[in-house]
Design brief:
The protein is mainly α. Helices cover 73% and strands 0% of the residues. The longest helix has 25 residues.
Amino acid sequence: MIYQLDLIGTAVFATAGVLSAGGKRMDLFGVVVVAMVSALGGGTLRDVILNANPVFWVNDPLYLYVAGLAALVTFYAATHVSRIPPAVFLVADAMGLAVFTIIGASKAFNLGAPYLVVVIMGVMTGVAGGIMRDMLCAQIPLVLRREIYATACLVGGGMFVVLAHLEAPQNLLIPLPMVAVLAVRLAAIYWHMSLPVFGDSEN
């Protein structure tokens, strides 16, 4: 189940990468590069830090094929649509965020990392690819804006750690935290929820 979800998350984040790069008028090569970085960047950084050799996509090139295929399909599909609503990108990104956060936390936990590191690795897996994507697209990364983004990962990662500590069954350990990340992120998008910003005042 985890492997299949990881592949789905890879495809979703690659799609989000294409939608983000598409607004910058990049050519096909540029779009595919952004999509691959978006889909594989967070997991790559996680594996390097955890010393999980080889890096996941080196050990299993299927991740490369899935990300590349998703990027190409999205690129050519988008060329036949005059305007893609911003909500499509945000929802796709939220879905990828939810999957990658819990996949990252699960991998760190299975490698015996302390609980705090498990949460951090979950957050990193979820947001690092998006940060790289936004930087390549010359945009302020979503995680650095006012929107609730990394906070959603913290909620899901924290829930994962609690459930793992309680030895929750596998059919709850992965889906519940994943739904929590998605729910928090989508709620933040829908209701324009944000964290306080340094220097803000009501006066």
